Amino acid sequence: MRLASRPAGACGRSSLYDCAKKEYAKINFTERDNGLAQPWCGRVWLNPPFDRYAVADWIQRLAKHGCGTALLHARTEAAWFEPVWKHASGILFLADRLKFCRADGSEQPHNSGAPAVLVAFGERDLFRLRMSGIAGFLVTGWERVQPFTATNAQRELPLSL
Fold this sequence. Notes:
The protein is α/β, with parallel strands linked by helices. Helix content is about 20%, strand content about 25%. The strands form two sheets. Strands 2-1-3-4-8-5-9 form a seven-stranded mixed beta sheet. Helix 2 (about 55-65) links the parallel strand 3 and strand 4. It starts with 5 loop residues before the first helix and ends in an 8-residue tail after the last helix.
């Protein structure tokens, strides 16, 4: 599977570019190379398997590495998305769905089936997302809100509310 190269090109050259076009990276890992078992260095462009069972290991690895950008489905409720909420510098929610292209450049008739995000880990990758010109909404700050419970209900609200 190959994606149109614009997201990677717009976000700058990577030192490691997983599962994508080779001209953007110094080192490339394919599925056969088992990229999770390889040492990662420098800036990483991560296009992990779009499999809900496989993606967790990849995004956890990039979160631990701390320097790179991942292309993911916007499955913000999924357990595998938790490292994004905990460690990412920013999330770019893309304005359009991804389109897959064949080797000859023609588009596949179907898209990826879900909205996509580009997730930055580290300030340099956040800067690259901000400057990429890719249409969408860049979210850089979020706060975890705890579910309402009887204990929470007993807390006083500030007088200014």
